[in-house]
Predict the structure.
Amino acid sequence: MSVAKGYSKFSEFFKTAHDAAAVVPFAGRFQESSTKGDREGMIKVLMGIPCIESVRIDESYTGKDEVKAAELYGKSRETVNDDGVTHEEGRICILTETLFAASVTSRFFLNALLDCARYWYNSKAFVNCLRCCECMLALPAKLYDKTTESVSDFLESREACMHLEKECSKRLKASASRGRNRHRKCNSGEGFSSGNRDAAVPVVDGKRHAVLEASSDALALQINEKRGRHLVATRNIKAGSVLIVERPFSFSTNKEALKRNCLHCHVTLKLEDSVKIPCHSCRTVSFCSEKCRREAWETYHRYECSVLNAFYEDDSVETQRQASHLLLAYRTTIVGSLFPNAVKLNNNNAEDSEIPFLDDNFLRYHAANINKEYSKLGISEVYSPHDYRTVLELETHCATLEPNINLIRAIEAIFLAKCFTFVLSKMNVVCSKETFTSLAVAMLHHLQAVNCNAYEIVENVYDKETHAWEPRHVGGAIYPSVSLVNHSCYPNVVRHSYPSGIVVVRTLCFIGKGSEILDCYGPHFLSEGRLQRREYLWKKYRFLCACEACTQNWQNPLPKTMNYKCKACSEIIDAFTVNERDERDVLTKRCHKCNEKLDCRKINDQLRKSVDRRLNAISKMYEGQYIQALPLLLEHVHFIEKFFAAPNIETIKTQQCIIQCYNQFGCTSQ
């Protein structure tokens, strides 16, 4: 590779760097640093290789195309085809394409945006019209002060949007007044509409924890050598309780979701009935509103826009997983390393009127290697999901990873750091060699943490044949509070996504005081055998699973029998086959441990009635009445847990239905 060569694709850089790092003496020195868990040492070894140190990054993004914009806008003006049939419904798609192709300073952008607003107004989609008006009214006049003609176009478009905004507000206010009763009916139990960007995010049950900022006070953080950091119940917690509601520290977006979902809040964007707002600089990403576009630009997108295509090279599953992890580590470093508020400048381009500065805390935290031991965060000091120190304390397994894995991560980290410093250089920010090393070390730290701490952001898609909400991945995220929850192959909580990447953790069953809160990291005993589960968990998370399902080697499919348990001491008393329980209605049993009497006939009668409630709940779910179904399911789970030992098929069936209800309440798409 020549010294002057630049890269716009990670795969090209990776091959060159990996081949160069595999030769003596670099390979031996890198392995030594890897074994010690010395991230700075690993980065310095690689940066000591001339062909890696001298690499520069080229721009890699899909820019605006004014010729294409003119062609599209002209097509949008043709309202009648050769057969004399209007194509008004398809016109909004063409106008949206025009917005993405046009420069924000051009008349095509202004005209297409105004036409979009008028289309939505005429279609009586007043909320969509307001979103287009919001985008127009947010445009600064100084973008159009180059010529008298452009100023005139801007002012005319702005005035038209102000009129539309006023009319939409009046009509929405009148509609809200007329529809108040219908709205109350919807809130009383008709469920959330598919793709609802305003899905109500729940709050934690009980009081919010005084120290664990995103959690209920029903939880406490504990630390011991065997379990590491983990969460336990401070009181008895019933099924259906909300334990954690957390916004991500940082998040990424999968390639297939870039045009399908808002980059910032992840709601589904359907071209025929949703507003799609473009980035002012690239054509790659979409937003649901001007608010999301502006927030994304200010916090992270301005630092990735010009190199974004480097993260999305092809469509293979493995490459896309890698791309999501690379982007997540990149954004995590951006959020952690820069001051929240940049220095304002007098600049004609409002989008680039700030200069970012590295946060001194970022440099100090990494210099002190704060991640080597746990702090008092979450115990005596506030544990905030937006505190960079909580991210630095996430497990990385740096010293125990194979040297070749650390080599891959270190090459990725250097590429990301070069991308970041390239973007900063375009903002007239010059990074010293020491600063570059700090950024690369941070990137490496976060890449290692992402591998074992990242969670999926999903939207749930309804399958009309199965009547089930199936998860579809949108991106990944870092949730420092949720990361405190340990794994079980039979978890007692479940996660589900809401707009803006918010994750909600709810209980699936009763959790007794002092019991640990347990999530599933992927392998569940219902879907995989013990050996496969343990192998996966060891390779990815470096622990041998000793959950109840593994230690007792629970098998799937579950047996048809259910085990009575003593409600006084929880000891298993006897087993019976569900389909044959009528034959045993006259039986009574006593616990051999505490001698508590068990009235099997009464319990069996109650079980039949409770199963009927579950079946009734399923019927309501098929009708879309998830809010009415959920209490019936939770009541059934409570009954089963009281009298029958886990695992049993009734609990499993009911928990799967409960998860379906939770899925429908959050991010959904048809």
The longest helix spans residues 148-178.
